[in-house]
Backbone:
């Protein structure tokens, strides 16, 4: 559909793209500039700082008022665990839905999809009360615990992920497992030794998408976690700019950089991998 | 399966089952019947899955289904129940709890009995009191909060210069100590028969009387001070004059939450404004991100364009940054007074825009930020779809004499739409509930004046509902739950249509 362009056409196209690139990376450059600006207020921010300082980054890790390193670690711990378990639970479920034929299979798949459409955040009151009463009997699984938060995330493990994984499993030929089972392997062994290794790409996609999704979630942890030392990065980040008078944009900017860059690097380096999963699975949260 | 494996399986199941039964006993003792039912169903399903051959697939599904049922299905069921109640601020307790609450209230009658007192304390900070009635002159001693009549000849009393200074190891408090401990002493309730006696001033104790009495047969609550009878109406004890006692209690109110949306103009007006804006916001978001993403995809798909892979990677950046971070950054950039966007506008055009203060501009801001967040997704899926269009089709069109515009319009665009339409609908559904961008950028504001429920110009249904339940001004859980059901119905309908539509489109594209 494309033909060669004239010089003018070429320049015009590049200009268009560059205009879009400017729109795209402007906030990124701005936040970077804010993070190395000596001032801490929006008003004092200069787009091109006269003095470059790394104090905001230092402050993040040294100021006892905000245990930023701990927040980051909490986020990684919660998201890492939740994603790992999610991948395993989803793989198990998707395997059954892909390989076995049983009564209620189709209905079950549709029900999963339908129930997932209910905005889970609106059932937050019920989730809160549930964790409150669980915490009375099992304190490490109640409110203000990471285990409790992970458990809530695991509730969302099935659903869209199962559909995504099932459709991938469907493309893996049955012959491999069947020959393994002729050789005496059980279904479960075939699943562990044959299907899982073959499905590594989709496992990685679901792991990373779940990781990014839970890492970016601020609503659930902000309702369930109450102690500052329990906060995840997403909850803690808001504290820097929440108050009308106590806003500290410099530190906030540094925190944004440190919180966003690892995710950005992983995403961009694995984009090929992720995009196929994304376009099949719907939209990022 | 080997013998050891079977043994291990049964052993493990046994351990889980005994843990379950142990928990169940605890739940029976605590009378948590709902949790007990859930536990029993879960345990039965687990045993069925492990022991029955027919339930083999269930062994794979159960590990995921248990947290799914607990954390998604159960809360949704509770939510559905709540939608038909008045649960919320002022109506949080059960009727029994409210009755208990009222029956434990006391009042100070004008002509109640008064007592002078002396207070004593032991080493464990425990208090006892010696009370003398001003009316009858009877002397009482408190023992574990209950008054008993004593005489001054009692052998426990230790006198010094005509005054009691010690009782059974309790020492008399001086006046200074009394003042210091006043707060603590005022908390103490002493009982004599049905009456409650409390400290009213530094000098005296007085008799309090029970304020309310609940008549179990009539089901009415009587105010013993005024004699007014209250009957339970719509979740609160109400007098014949219509005076409602707070707190009220939770009752089922049928469809009233839903009817309220239509019938109450103070709720209906803001609700339908929010409702319309939700659709407009979702549609605008899809339209703007699609147009931009698609245009960029067409540009970048051009094999003659140099550096297109680099361009593509840069343009994906907004998608690679966790959304809440970029939204907060945008909130700072769009800050009306000090934000960089307004400062640039000021420098270039000498004017600023009231981004987050003016209803219209706030809407523009929300859509603009959502465009920044969302166009890479559209670009990615359009690029994918463009690449999947077979080149033979272009060849054929070229041979038939179609120009490049015609090829684009007659071949590229329709084929692209077929593969992308379901994703567009998906994106609509996603933006319909795009809580983060609204909540973190504008918080729903600026507020709509004169709204009875907190509602703002940029509020979409989900942020509106969130504010109803968790916002500052009282928690209207019942009403919020009702709206969440409406949202669910809308999204489910859209998705169902999408599902059918997708299948029809697949059939069309197979025919190609």
Residues:
């Amino acid at each position: 559909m494309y033909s060669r362009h004239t010089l003018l056409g070429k320049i015009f196209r590049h200009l268009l793209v560059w205009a879009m690139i400017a729109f795209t990376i402007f906030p990124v450059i701005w936040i970077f500039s804010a993070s190395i600006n000596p001032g801490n207020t929006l008003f004092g921010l200069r787009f091109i700082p006269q003095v470059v300082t790394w104090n905001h980054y230092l402050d993040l890790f040294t100021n006892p008022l905000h245990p930023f390193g701990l927040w980051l670690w909490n986020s990684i711990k919660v998201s890492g665990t939740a994603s790992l378990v999610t991948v395993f639970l989803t793989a198990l479920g998707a395997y059954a839905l892909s390989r076995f034929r049983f009564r209620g299979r189709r209905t079950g798949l549709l029900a999963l999809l339908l129930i997932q459409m209910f905005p889970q955040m609106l059932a937050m009151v019920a989730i809160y009360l549930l964790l409150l009463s669980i915490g009375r009997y099992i304190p490490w699984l109640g409110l203000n615990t990471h285990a409790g938060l992970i458990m809530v995330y695991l509730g969302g493990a099935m659903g869209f992920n199962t559909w995504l994984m099932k459709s991938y499993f469907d493309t893996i030929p049955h012959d491999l497992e069947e020959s393994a089972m002729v050789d005496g392997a059980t279904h479960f062994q075939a699943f562990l030794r044959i299907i899982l290794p073959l499905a590594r790409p989709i496992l990685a996609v679901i792991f990373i998408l779940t990781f990014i999704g839970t890492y970016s979630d601020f609503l659930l942890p902000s309702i369930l976690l109450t102690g500052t030392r329990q906060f995840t990065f997403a909850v803690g980040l808001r504290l820097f700019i929440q108050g009308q008078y106590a806003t500290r944009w410099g530190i906030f900017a540094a925190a944004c950089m440190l919180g966003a860059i690892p995710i950005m690097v992983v995403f961009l380096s694995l984009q090929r991998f992720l995009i196929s999963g994304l376009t099949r699975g719907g939209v990022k949260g | 399966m080997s013998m050891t494996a079977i043994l291990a399986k049964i052993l493990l199941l046994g351990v889980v089952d005994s843990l379950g039964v142990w928990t169940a006993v605890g739940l029976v003792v605590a009378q948590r019947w709902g949790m007990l039912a859930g536990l029993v169903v879960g345990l039965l399903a687990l045993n069925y899955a492990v022991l029955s051959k027919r339930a083999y697939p269930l062994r794979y599904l159960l590990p995921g289904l248990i947290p799914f049922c607990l954390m998604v299905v159960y809360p949704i069921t509770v939510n559905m129940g709540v939608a038909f109640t008045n649960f919320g601020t002022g109506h949080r307790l059960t009727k029994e709890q409210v009755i208990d609450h009222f029956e434990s209230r006391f009042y100070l009658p004008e002509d109640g009995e008064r007592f002078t007192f002396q207070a004593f304390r032991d080493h464990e900070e425990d208090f006892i009191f010696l009370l003398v009635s001003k009316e009858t002159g009877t002397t009482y001693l408190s023992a574990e909060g209950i008054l008993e009549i004593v005489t001054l000849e009692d052998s426990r009393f230790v006198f010094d210069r005509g005054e009691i200074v010690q009782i059974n190891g309790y020492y008399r408090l001086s006046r200074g100590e009394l003042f210091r401990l006043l707060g603590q002493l005022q908390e103490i309730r002493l009982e004599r028969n049905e009456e409650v006696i409390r400290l009213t001033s530094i000098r005296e104790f007085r008799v309090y009387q029970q304020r309310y009495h609940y008549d179990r047969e009539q089901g009415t609550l009587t105010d013993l001070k005024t004699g007014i009878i209250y009957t339970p109406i719509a979740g609160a004890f109400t007098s014949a004059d219509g005076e409602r006692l707070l707190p009220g209690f939770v009752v089922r109110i049928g469809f009233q939450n839903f009817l309220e949306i239509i019938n109450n103009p103070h709720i209906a007006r803001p609700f339908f404004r929010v409702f319309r804006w939700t659709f407009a916001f979702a549609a605008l978001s899809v339209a703007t991100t699609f147009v931009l993403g698609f245009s960029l995809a067409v540009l970048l798909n051009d094999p003659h364009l140099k550096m297109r892979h680099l361009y593509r990677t840069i343009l994906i950046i907004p998608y690679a940054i966790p959304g809440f971070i970029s939204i907060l950054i945008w909130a700072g950039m769009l800050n009306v007074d000090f934000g960089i966007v307004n400062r640039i506008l000021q420098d270039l055009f000498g004017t600023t825009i009231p981004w987050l203060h003016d209803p219209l501009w706030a809407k523009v801001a929300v859509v603009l930020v959502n465009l920044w967040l969302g166009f890479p997704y559209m670009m990615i899926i359009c690029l994918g779809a463009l690449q999947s269009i077979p080149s033979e089709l272009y060849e054929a069109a070229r041979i038939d004499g179609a120009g490049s515009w015609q090829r684009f319009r007659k071949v590229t665009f329709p084929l692209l739409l077929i593969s992308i339409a379901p994703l567009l609908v998906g994106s609509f559904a996603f933006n319909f509930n795009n809580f983060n961008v609204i909540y973190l950028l504008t918080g729903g504001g600026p507020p709509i004046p004169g709204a009875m429920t907190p509602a703002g110009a940029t509020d979409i249904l989900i942020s509106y509902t969130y504010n109803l339940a968790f916002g500052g001004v009282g928690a209207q859980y019942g009403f919020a739950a009702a709206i969440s059901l409406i949202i669910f119905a809308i999204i489910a309908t859209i998705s169902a249509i999408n599902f059918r539509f997708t299948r029809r489109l697949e059939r069309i594209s197979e025919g190609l």
Q: What stands out?
A: The longest strand of chain B covers residues 114-121. Chain B has three domains: 3-82, 106-210, 262-510. Chain B touches chain A through 96 residues (CB under 8 Å). Residues 262-510 of chain B form a domain with the MetI-like fold fold (CATH 1.10.3720.10).
